């Protein structure tokens, strides 16, 4: 046995020596030919197939989406079985992500098929003339038996990509975007949007709104977010328009933040006065991502949307209402050096909302806010563009109880009856209610804040009565003056008639 192992070791050593000599001194074409046919011969006996997912491809300027999806999928599905993990805080992630360490091997199972994932890396040689060492090339290898080729390449990889993308969206750090004037874009900037981290704390639970109306909006939003197949079946772009209108201070901006937090969407705050023309508006739309809310606040102040429709008689078609006479340019001047007036038109805005380009991206909400809905053009807010109209009005007693619970963690109080009576008699916005309930010093408790709020309501009531009385007196005085003027004109007319008769 010893002699046999000695002979085998000597033979292997001789073979390895000869193979090293052949690879070193044989031409490259010959060694390539030998490698190719050796690989082909081994393929007849090796029953496993390998698929590689490289982190960077080509010029290495952009990370592979497939690699990122595999990384997210494995971090969520195999981190419990892997023995060596590495923790990272991704650039666009709000959570700590655990991924497989290099050369770690894990097993995954799908429909009874076992596959093996391996995380590997290759270090490129350092170029002598370069100041920087080339980065390592990382990749994932998927190994599986060749008899499962159809399942793996057909449905398993699609499953990995879909679930990986959903995991990345859930773990991403949500952002608040805004656009800048076109002349401020530097040449190296790759996007028209600048952003900050979106960390607004508003939720539907903390909003001062009737519970029935709140539930209706939540159900509408959740249904929309789960209706991808429905929108595809009816042939409609996966988007929905919301029109939020009401007096200032009624919670329109807070509603947008609550919608974003409910659906985990990014927010794009579009400033129309900074957009040069319709082409630039279209480019901004293209650069928005899926799962986002595009917001145009105070739409009645951003564009001149009143008085630009020229009716052909009393009747005109819906298409004419949408397209004809809509080329009205925005004339607001941007008071920045080097800027010029915006040429965004109503037609361009209508196409931005529901034109052909609006279908790009998918799963998007478009939200308009306004204080004066009657000033908006009917074509801009019709169903199909602004699908749901939400009126945010003055604070009710139910809304007040939400704000009181937010501030003091109370659901009932002896002063609530008085507050309920006063709220039914006067109009006050949720913003004013929240300001009056907010403690002004560390010594302020619920009793003191509620007492101060009742005083503020009574003061507001007295001011409203005084204002109403003054307006009534002014109107009465105008009526008296108008009657005296009529009487004087009548007497003057009678005197003139008598003088004419006397002369005759």
UniProtKB/TrEMBL annotation:
Highest taxon, organism lineage: Eukaryota
Compositionally biased residues, Basic and acidic residues: 314-334
A molecular function (GO) term: ATP binding
PROSITE patterns on file: AAA
Chemical reaction(s) catalysed: ATP + H2O = ADP + phosphate + H(+)
Cofactor: Mg(2+)
Keyword match GTP-binding: no
Entry-linked CDD domains: RecA-like_BCS1
Descriptive protein name: AAA+ ATPase domain-containing protein
Organism (species): Lupinus angustifolius
Lineage of source species: Eukaryota, Viridiplantae, Streptophyta, Embryophyta, Tracheophyta
């Amino acid at each position: 046995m010893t002699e046999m192992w000695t002979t085998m070791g000597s033979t292997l050593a001789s073979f390895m020596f000869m193979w090293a000599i052949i690879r070193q001194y044989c031409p490259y074409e010959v060694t390539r030919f030998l490698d190719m046919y050796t690989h082909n011969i081994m393929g007849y006996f090796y029953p496993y197939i390998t698929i590689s997912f490289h982190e960077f491809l080509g010029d290495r300027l952009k990370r592979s989406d497939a690699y990122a999806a595999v990384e997210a999928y494995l971090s969520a599905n195999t981190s419990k079985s892997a023995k060596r993990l590495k923790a990272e805080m991704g650039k666009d992630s709000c959570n700590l992500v655990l991924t497989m360490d290099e050369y770690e091997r894990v097993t995954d199972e799908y429909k009874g098929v076992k596959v093996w994932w391996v995380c590997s890396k290759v270090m490129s040689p350092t170029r002598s003339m370069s100041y920087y060492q080339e980065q390592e090339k990382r990749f994932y290898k998927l190994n599986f038996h060749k008899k499962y080729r159809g399942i793996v390449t057909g449905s398993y990889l699609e499953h990995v990509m879909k679930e990986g993308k959903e995991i990345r969206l859930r773990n991403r750090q949500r952002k608040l975007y805004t656009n800048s004037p076109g002349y401020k874009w530097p040449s190296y900037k790759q996007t028209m949007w600048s952003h900050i981290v979106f960390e607004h704390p508003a939720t539907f639970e903390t909003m001062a709104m009737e519970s029935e109306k709140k539930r209706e909006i939540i159900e509408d939003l959740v249904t929309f977010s789960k209706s991808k197949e429905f929108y595809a079946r009816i042939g409609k772009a996966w988007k929905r328009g919301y029109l939020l209108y009401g007096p200032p201070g009624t919670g329109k901006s807070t509603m947008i933040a609550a919608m974003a937090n409910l659906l985990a969407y990014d927010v794009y705050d579009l400033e129309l006065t900074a957009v040069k023309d319709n082409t630039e508006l279209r480019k901004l739309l293209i650069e928005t991502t899926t799962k986002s809310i595009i917001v145009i606040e105070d739409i009645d102040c951003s564009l001149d949307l009143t008085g630009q429709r020229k009716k052909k008689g009393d009747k005109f078609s819906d298409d004419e209402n949408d397209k004809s006479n809509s080329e009205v340019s925005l004339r607001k001047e941007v008071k920045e050096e080097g800027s010029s007036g915006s040429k965004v038109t109503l037609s361009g805005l209508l196409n931005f909302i529901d034109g052909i380009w609006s279908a790009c991206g998918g799963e998007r909400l478009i939200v308009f806010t306004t204080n004066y809905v009657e000033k908006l053009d009917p074509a801009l807010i019709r169903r199909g563009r602004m699908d749901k109209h939400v009126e945010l009005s003055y604070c009710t007693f139910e809304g007040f109880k939400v704000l009181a619970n937010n501030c003091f963690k109370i659901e009932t109080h002896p002063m609530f009856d008085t507050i309920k009576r006063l709220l039914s008699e006067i109009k006050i916005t949720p913003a004013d209610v929240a300001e009056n309930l907010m403690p002004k010093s560390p010594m302020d408790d619920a009793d003191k804040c509620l007492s101060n709020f009742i005083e503020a309501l009574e003061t507001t009531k007295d001011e409203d009565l005084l204002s109403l009385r003054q307006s009534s007196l002014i109107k009465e005085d105008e009526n008296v003056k108008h009657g005296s003027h009529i009487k004087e004109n009548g007497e003057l007319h009678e005197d003139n008639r008598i003088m004419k008769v006397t002369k005759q």
